[in-house]
Amino acid sequence: MIKFIFKGLIRDKSRSLLPILVIMIGVFLTVGMTGYIRGFIEDFVDQNARLQTGHVNVVTKAWAENESMMPLDLALLGVDTLLTELQTDFPGYRWSPRIRFGGMLDVPDENGESKKQGPVMGMAVDLLSGNTDEIDRLNLKTALASGHIPREPDEVMIGEELAKKLELKPGDKVTFIGSTMDGSLTFQNLVVSGTIRYGVRQMDNVVMLLDLRQARSILDMEDGATEILGYSKQGVYSDEEAGKVRDAFNAKWSGSEDDFVPVMRRLRDEPTLGYYFTYINSFSGMMIFILILIMSIVLWNAGLLGGLRRYNEFGIRLAMGEEKGHVYKMLLYEALFTGIIGSVVGTAFGVAFTLFLQYKGIDISGMIQGGTMIMPNVIRAKFSPDLLSIGFIPGVIAMLIGNMLSGIAIFKRETAKLIKELEI
Amino acid sequence: MKLALKLAYKNLIRAGLKTWLNALALSFAFVLIIFYNGMIDGWNNEARQDAIAWEYGTGHLRNAAYDPMDPFTIQDGHGVLPEQYREHLTPILVWQGTLYPHGRMMPVLIKGIEPGQTTVKIPSGVLKNSTAGYPVLLGRKMAESAGLKEGDQVLLRWRDRNGTFDAVEVTVAGIFETNVPFVDGGQVWIALNTLRKMTGLTDEATFFIADENYTPTPVDGWTFVDQKMLLKPVTNLINAKKYGAAFMYLLLLAIGLLVIFDTQAFSIFRRQKEIGTHIAMGMTRGEVIRMFTVEGAMYSIFAIILGGIYGAPLFIYLAKNGISFPVSGDTMGIIIAPTIYSIYSTALIVKTFLLLVISATLVSLLATRKIAGMNPVEALKGKAL
Amino acid sequence: MNAFILLLISVLWTGLKFPDPNMILDRVDQNMLSTTKILEGRMIVYGKRNTRIITFRSYSEGIHKSFTEYLTPAREAGTKMLKLKDNLWIYSPAADRIIQLSGHMLKQSVMGSDMSYEDMMEDRKMKDVYDATVTGEETVDGRKCWILELNAKVEDVAYEKMKIWVDQLRYVPLREELYAKSGQLLKRVVMSDVKRFGDRWYPTKINYKDVLKNGKGTDFIITRLQLGVKIDEYIFTKAALKK
Q: Is residue A17 part of a domain?
């Protein structure tokens, strides 16, 4: 019987092609759009987490209060002990200490006199310990615009725009001038090993990326870090879970009056980000809902019209003695078929589109200007398994419902009138 | 044409639920476009108004050596504007200083403003009425980050024009609430004459804020930056959000149009006999095409009516009560009011209306292509397609 | 008329009671300023979380030339600083570079202390910059002192007003207070452990404190002082920084 239905569908193009096409487009749009919105949010959150905040982060109380000034003297010390503690207490997270600090890059001429100077934002992460996951986390391999990722302690990567401004290229020597944790002036010769491009102005214009141990030595903060970022091993940020971790950690340290007591914050506690989170989440939820609703209407409509179009055919079939129930059943089988085919193809296209965006992205850098938030300049979609069903199920169901509703007409027809109707 | 309209209307009304479903699909796009653009326009409008009211006035007349983006220019970027040019201008003197709240050091910009000025909304009158020796005004954000409240005394240190240190206990005479981060964070507002005395910069100013009656006249050593130029970064940022969202609602529109195309294509197929009859009765193909096109286009009218029915209360509510945002935009460096009141301009509504009607008409026209090649006899038999 | 006589008498009386302030400043200069000076010492910086000790050796000639080399801790060792009139260069062995400090970098603190590089740059004779008056006597650390009040007579001076407590016999300043124009106290310098070096008296412990900031300030302790010794001219050149 399946074969029969299938043949019918193949031979009557208008019975198959158009409904399938409609469903396909609808499902494609639903899936693609959902992937796009999800990708946008996740990318946004993810990029902030990777570059700045982690899923959770630990800083000193004093640093948290003065964060905007990046006060090195208020940084965490005794990081190794704290790290071990974090690793035992929260095994579901990976922890990575970092140092953020300000300073200046001085470019010498051939006589060692200052040729150019520019402010930099230092970002020290573990690059050289051998078992670091920061290189992947920061997407350094993709972000690398020229040269290579530091292999030696005195090698640094700088933002591409900064490199342009200071006329630096890989292999050039620079001197970092800054203040140690204790406030002494500190100088360090460094070699630019490569340049990075994140497509984020706040990074590309000022960032200097270097190994954590080197930064500790430059800044005279042995066993120190401005923050320890925590990343869920599942790779996905969960607000609730991060909240639990935060509360558990802070409960342990509560009651201490010390200014340098560590405090944990989660991604969403960052006020700006938290707000965006809520906003985008609710907005995209609404969008997806509207999309699915509309698609259902479209598809239902398609089914309805398909049924109406075959009014004559059903008449003939009934006149030839086919049971009404059987005609109806066959109609639904057909609908299921076309629905599935359309949904499969539509989902496939939607997923392909999503995957394309996930890997290639759309550059929207022209649309974003200024702002202190780290906004991805390239929008990427995000594939998740539920995309396979998010368009598929409404696609099939809408088709079925459409045909069910339209098919009801079959039962209303009176056999006696059939011949009369068919005369014309 | 009248006939076509009448027929189209009757046909659609008779189709009942189906018509309304199609119209509903299309109406989402309509409502969303108006909702989103209305919100952005509202935001834009408020941001512009706030920026004008708090910071920009009708424009700034800047000392030529002063660049607001470069703090190193503050040292030298000030001067005396000749008396005859000062009409309709409110002088502001900017100076660097260090605030010592609770034993911490906090670099700040000290801004001198005339207590009697009314050009911008900075509540400078408070400075005149205060009995404290050195009354200052702080924005709420600044007060929070310094841990200061009204009535608190805090030490302010600065260097005068010769580099000599000076320091006094200033009193927080008032804290103002503003959506404009550029007059709040890291700034201390003080009476202009006080700051002039403090720094020894008699009669000097860094820039002037123009009121609406100011007519720009070129002055040597000063540059006038008009309101439009000043507002550009504000509007650019917000408009960028407009384009980002266009993608979303154009998609919705596309889906809505797909429904119409779909419906019309099927409807033409189903109504071959009717088409054949029309032609047989003497209608030209063009007339039939027009009738079907009008029918399709009419969906957009229905969509607008439908969208109006459920959208209007929403729009009116948003325009009256606004949408509240949990966090202010200070940290983002953009101006964002805590409540955004949507604005629906006639232009926006007309544009959206036209967009919908035109696109629906085009799509319907596209769907009628088959009629052109139809053989009326076959059509009458229902076998033309 | 009576009032005038009273005023005259009181002026004469103070004049009689207190010595000429410029004389005191001259005597202080005589005692403190040496043509050449080699000084070894340590700086104790009291931080919020730790206390650091930095040792140094410095050479100076007059008030315009000075050269300082940091000896310990290891990370500061070999850092050298040369001041010639208005210019200040720093040499860092880690970077093997000489960098001239200017602009906002002069506002940085010296080795995390309460003193900024800018504070070190003021090298004019007090007599040239300030009008001095003796306003009274006070006992500091058991030594009788004149209190000198100094008011700037030039405009481009960092501190408009200073108060100095000078030992009446040894002509060593024992305390200095630096004021803002408004009269707000900004910095306080306390000198103690005065010792004899040849025919001069010298404080061997100086505490320098920014009173607006929380904390204990910074201690400078002189462990060795040679006065009037010959210093090679080469020391006060940029080339010496790299050596």
A: yes
Q: Which residues of C touch A189 (CB under 8 A)?
A: 94-97
Which residues in B lie closer than 8 A to residue A53 (C-beta atoms)?
A: none
Residue C5 lies in a domain: no
Q: How far apart are CA A210 and CA A29, in angstroms?
A: 43
Q: B256-276 pLDDT, tens per residue?
A: 787 778 777 777 777 777 888
Assign A329 to helix, strand or coil. helix
Q: Are residues A228 and A279 in the same domain?
A: no
β-strand partners of B326: none
For the stretch C97-122, pLDDT in tens is 888 887 667 777 888 888 888 887 77
The answer to whether residues C71 and C56 touch, using CB atoms and an 8 Å cutoff, is yes
Domain that holds residue A162: 56-236
User: Higher confidence at residue A15 or residue C101?
Assistant: C101
pLDDT digits (tens, 9 = 90+) for A271-327: 556 656 666 666 656 666 666 666 666 666 666 666 666 777 777 887 788 888 888
Neighbouring subunits of B (3+ Cβ pairs under 8 A)? A, C
Which residue in A336, A326, A345 sits closest to A391, CA to CA? A345
Residue A255 falls inside a structural domain:
no
Lowest-pLDDT range of B94-108, B137-151, B363-377, C223-237: B363-377
B98 touches chain A (CB under 8 A): no
* Interchain proximity B325–A369, CB inside 8 Å: no
Domain extent, residue B185, equals: 59-213
Domain boundary among A211, A236, A261: A236
Take residue B97 and report the two structure tokens written for it. 């200083």
Smallest Cβ distance to B166: which of C156, C181, C212?
Answer: C181
CA distance A356 to chain C (A): 47
The CATH number of the domain holding residue C104 is 2.50.20.10
Q: Which residues of A touch B269 (CB under 8 A)?
A: 14, 309
Residue whose tokens read 């702080």: B138
> A25-46 pLDDT, tens per residue?
777 877 777 777 667 666 667 7
Structural domain for C80, as ranges: 20-242
Q: Do A102 and A16 fall into the same domain?
A: no
Residues contacting residue A25 through CB under 8 Å, at least 6 positions apart: A346, B258
Q: Do C76 and A179 touch (CB under 8 A)?
A: no
Q: What is the pLDDT of residue B328?
A: 44
For an interface test with A, the pick among B35, B253, B327, B328 (most A C-beta atoms closer than 10 Å) comes out as B327
CA distance B276 to chain A (A): 13
Measured between beta carbons, which residues in chain C are less than 8 angstroms from residue A184? 76, 111-112
Distance from CA of B188 to the nearest CA of C (A): 18
Helices (H), A58-165: 61-65, 79-89, 134-137, 140-143, 160-165
Q: Under an 8 A CB cutoff, do B233 and A373 touch?
A: no
Residues of chain C short of pLDDT 70, as ranges, are 1-17, 103-104
| Per-residue pLDDT at B97 exceeds 50 | yes
A188 to chain C: closest CA residue: C95
pLDDT (mean) for A335-339: 83
Q: Are residues A126 and A6 in the same domain?
A: no
Is residue B115 within 8 A of residue B167, CB to CB? The reply is no
Banded model confidence at residue B332, pLDDT cuts 50, 70, 90: very low
> For residue C9, is it within any domain?
no
Q: Give C 102-121 residues with CB within 8 A of chain A.
A: 105, 108-109, 111-113
Contact residues for B219 (Cβ-Cβ < 8 A; gap 6+): B61, B81, B82, B85
- State pLDDT tens for residues A76-114: 999 999 999 999 999 999 999 999 998 888 898 887 777
Q: Is A235 left (phi over 0), alpha (psi -120 to 50) or beta?
A: left
Nearest chain A Cα distance for residue B182, angstroms: 13
Q: Do A112 and C98 touch (CB under 8 A)?
A: yes
Q: Is the pTM of this model over 0.80?
A: no
Is A58 in a helix, a strand, or coil? strand
Number of domains composing chain B: 2
Residues of A within 8 A of C50 (CB-CB) are 182
